[in-house]
């Protein structure tokens, strides 16, 4: 874009003395100076006049699109073809008429440059509507295609798309057909205000026909497809000056699409057109369900994503269960509607713009007298498995499965009749809702309180027996054999130096403090089986706490070498207030145990941050980033690297892994002070993809406890998922995302490290 700014820089004189005034000017000198001054003034005035009056390219340019109704012409098929003589003739007439209309108006004529007719179509159109387009929508190249084509962004797949470009594809199929656009590759810049693709349900770029604007990356396993409501579609690609990506490839096919119909039997299913991809605009489908006489119908929506419209209240697209309710927006999985009749009518309606992925629905019958055979009936009419009653989780959605419970020994009996896992007793959080789980939490005098809140006799502390279930009665005990020492060498000799392991100095005579100092080893070998508790000092020596300078812990990270940390890309994305992508924003605490004792840890500043270039902020795909420390760290007992898995490693489902971090100890809760650890299991990716509604890519690994209760949470992001293999700990994953925390059937999602082994090597040499 041309700029009107001008700056003048005065260069320093090479020899100031030469410029010194020697004597005053004579008469001739004054006249010459005046003539030169007048000439310069005239030149400046001339330039200004030219600049503001004649330089058309400096004027701000706008393109308006709109439609006109032609009332005195019969529509002929040739008008559909922009190359036909009939099209050209009518287009010329329209352009001439527009030109004469604008030139008659003194206000408009000075702004009007020209018009171009893009298409004619036979249907009623609004009288005249004009919409200002994005100022970048200046067509530099333009192509027209008919249906049954492959369209690609310019340069694809050999080179990235060009900067500052606008390309559009007008797609036209045979009358009576719809067009289906399926992207098999879609990889654009993340930020839609820079580069974007828009898909319109018309041949011209009008907002009211905009189906969707897309940017970023879509994996082929979650492909984007769009369907138009008629035989035309417009695809536009707009790019700005920076950040050019590979682009897209899409197939255009002609289809005929029918939806709705009559459904019968005792159960069945149906879905919105093109589900699980985008439904077409301007579409109405009606399903008439009729089940055997005397039975009632129950309808469930496993998935439901329907655009709400600008006014909300289902003013855009909606699903109506006639006589019962109208649904739109995003609904919880398995939202249910019942009718006390053997007939149900379901209508789906989409308006002219803004589409979404739609819904899937299943229906089944129920007996009016026994609505939940062999199941528990919630107050909201849902039926849940009886085994889910009184398990501490709200399975009904209205908590009625957790009322009036008799709890078993593994649960706390709350006074209000609900049960909560014993694990949550005396943890400072009111889980019961009436504080029952937080009463009587102290131990009697003469008793020791274990880390898991169990009380054991004080006499049992440091008696070399693990009396607390978590062994915490034997933590931190000094042993006679190395009294007041922190380290016993391989030959049994005690040394008093704190953390002598792997600090680069031979402290033990036998060198045992400096042997095995490479990755994945702990200085302190003790470890426990846990379900969310404090880690031991040095148990995760690769764990890092990333703070925004002088504020608080934000994310975790893992040490992989003296210079490099691995974290999550989503931890280093800028927001309007904080430049998380800048190394200067951060300080990294290595060897930290409790956030209260930062002074005991090693603080490092960062030299650079390398987020993965294909990180997708919508899908969290490729959620990984590298951080280089500004100076190498010296390893010690509490600061050590974790081993990286090789590219071919697979972590089988069912394998136990450890997660650690200072994140929230409850969904929506606050962060932990002392480093927490938990053991979870790897979950099969196909199962996980099902549970997470198809959002899992091959760059993600799932781990968790499907019954809920153990998980990573907000603030653990970027931290390690560590796995033991051949007596070393390996970085199996990086904490990435999840649907809340520790919910039933909602595993934690981790970045799948083997997929990034080569990338780490390339970027760091590690
Ligand atoms: C987070 O917001 C986050 N339950 C991290 C992990 C999980 C959820 C949220 C997994 O950083």
UniProtKB/TrEMBL annotation:
Domain of life: Eukaryota
Residues recorded as bearing (3R)-3-hydroxyasparagine in the entry: 240
Cysteine-cysteine disulfides: 259-285, 314-328, 372-405, 378-396, 378-426, 390-405, 407-419, 414-432, 426-441, 432-489, 443-455, 450-468, 462-477, 477-502, 482-494, 502-517, 519-643, 688-702, 713-741
Entry's localization field: Membrane
GO annotation terms (biological process): complement activation; proteolysis
Residues that bind Ca(2+) 2: 232, 240
Limits of the Peptidase S1 domain: 529-765
Gene3D superfamilies to which the protein is assigned, alphabetical: Low-density Lipoprotein Receptor, SEA domain, Spermadhesin, CUB domain, Trypsin-like serine proteases
Residues where Ca(2+) 3 binds: 317, 351, 353
Keywords annotated in UniProt: Calcium, Disulfide bond, Hydrolase, Hydroxylation, Membrane, Metal-binding, Protease, Serine protease, Signal-anchor, Transmembrane, Transmembrane helix
Residue intervals of the SEA domain: 60-202
Membrane topology of this protein: Single-pass type II membrane protein
Protein name: Suppressor of tumorigenicity 14 protein homolog
Organism lineage string: Eukaryota, Metazoa, Chordata, Craniata, Vertebrata
């Amino acid at each position: 874009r041309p700029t009107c700014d001008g700056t003048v820089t005065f260069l320093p004189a090479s020899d100031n003395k030469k410029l010194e005034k020697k004597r005053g000017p004579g008469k001739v000198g004054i006249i010459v100076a005046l003539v030169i001054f007048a000439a310069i003034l005239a030149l400046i005035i001339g330039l200004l006049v030219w600049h503001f009056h004649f330089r058309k390219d400096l004027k701000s340019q706008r393109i308006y699109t709109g439609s006109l109704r032609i009332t005195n012409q019969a529509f002929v098929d040739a008008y559909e073809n922009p190359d036909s003589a009939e099209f050209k003739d009518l287009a010329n007439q329209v352009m001439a008429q527009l030109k004469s209309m604008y030139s008659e108006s003194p206000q408009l004529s000075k702004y009007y440059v020209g018009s171009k007719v893009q298409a004619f179509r036979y249907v009623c159109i609004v009288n005249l509507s004009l919409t200002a387009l994005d100022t970048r929508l200046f067509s530099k190249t333009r192509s027209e295609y008919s249906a049954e084509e492959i369209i690609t962004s310019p340069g694809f797949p050999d080179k990235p798309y060009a900067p500052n470009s606008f390309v559009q594809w007008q797609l036209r199929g045979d009358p009576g057909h719809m067009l289906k656009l399926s992207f098999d590759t879609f990889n654009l810049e993340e930020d839609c205000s820079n580069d974007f693709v828009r898909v319109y349900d018309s041949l011209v770029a009008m907002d009211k026909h905009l189906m969707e604007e897309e940017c970023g990356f879509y994996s082929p396993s979650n492909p984007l497809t769009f369907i138009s409501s008629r035989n035309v579609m417009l695809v536009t690609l707009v790019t700005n000056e920076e950040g050019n990506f590979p682009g897209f490839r899409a197939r255009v096919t002609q289809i005929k699409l029918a939806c709705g119909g009559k459904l019968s039997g005792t159960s069945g299913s149906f879905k919105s057109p093109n589900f699980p991809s985008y439904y077409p605009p301007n579409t109405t489908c009606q399903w008439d369900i009729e089940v055997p006489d005397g039975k009632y119908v129950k309808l469930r929506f496993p998935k439901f994503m329907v655009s709400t419209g600008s006014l909300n209240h289902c003013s855009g697209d909606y699903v109506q269960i006639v006589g019962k309710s109208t649904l739109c927006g995003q609904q919880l999985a398995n939202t249910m509607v019942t009718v006390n009749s053997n007939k149900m009518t379901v209508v789906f309606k989409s308006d002219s713009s803004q589409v979404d992925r739609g819904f899937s629905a299943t229906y089944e019958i129920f007996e009016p007298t026994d609505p939940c055979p062999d199941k528990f009936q919630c107050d909201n009419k849902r039926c849940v498995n009886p085994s889910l009653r009184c398990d501490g989780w709200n399975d009904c959605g209205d908590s009625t499965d957790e009322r009036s419970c008799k709890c078993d020994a593994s649960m706390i009996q709350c006074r209000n009749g609900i049960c909560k896992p014993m694990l949550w007793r005396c943890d400072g959080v009111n889980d019961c809702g009436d504080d029952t789980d937080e009463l009587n939490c102290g131990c009697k005098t003469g008793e020791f309180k274990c880390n898991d809140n169990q009380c054991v006799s004080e006499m049992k502390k440091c008696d070399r027996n693990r009396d607390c279930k978590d062994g915490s009665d034997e933590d931190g005990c000094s042993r006679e054999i190395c009294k007041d020492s922190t380290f016993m060498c391989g030959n049994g000799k005690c040394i008093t130096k704190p953390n002598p392991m792997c600090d680069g100095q031979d402290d033990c005579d036998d060198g045992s403090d400096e042997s095995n100092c490479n990755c994945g080893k702990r200085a302190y070998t003790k470890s426990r089986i846990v379900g969310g508790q404090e880690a031991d000092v040095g148990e995760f020596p690769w764990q890092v706490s990333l703070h925004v300078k002088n504020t608080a812990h934000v994310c975790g990270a893992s040490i992989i070498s003296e210079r490099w940390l691995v974290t999550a890309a989503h931890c280093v994305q800028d927001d309007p207030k904080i430049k998380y992508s800048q190394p200067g924003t951060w300080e990294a605490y290595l060897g930290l145990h409790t956030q209260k004792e930062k002074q005991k840890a090693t603080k490092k500043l960062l030299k650079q941050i390398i987020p993965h270039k294909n990180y997708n902020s919508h899908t969290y795909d490729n959620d990984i980033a590298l951080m280089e420390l500004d100076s190498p760290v010296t390893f010690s007992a509490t600061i050590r690297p974790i081993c990286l898995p090789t590219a071919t490693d697979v972590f089988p489902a069912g394998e136990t892994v450890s997660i650690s971090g200072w994140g929230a100890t409850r969904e929506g809760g606050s962060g932990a002070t002392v480093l927490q650890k938990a053991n979870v299991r790897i979950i099969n990716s196909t199962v996980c993809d099902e549970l997470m509604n198809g959002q899992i890519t091959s760059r993600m690994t799932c781990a968790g406890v499907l019954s809920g209760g153990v998980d990573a949470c907000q603030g653990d992001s970027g931290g390690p998922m560590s796995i033991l293999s051949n007596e070393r700990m390996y970085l199996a994953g990086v904490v990435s995302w999840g649907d809340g925390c520790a919910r039933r059937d909602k595993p934690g999602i981790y970045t799948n490290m083997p997929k990034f082994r080569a990338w780490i090597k390339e970027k760091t040499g590690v």
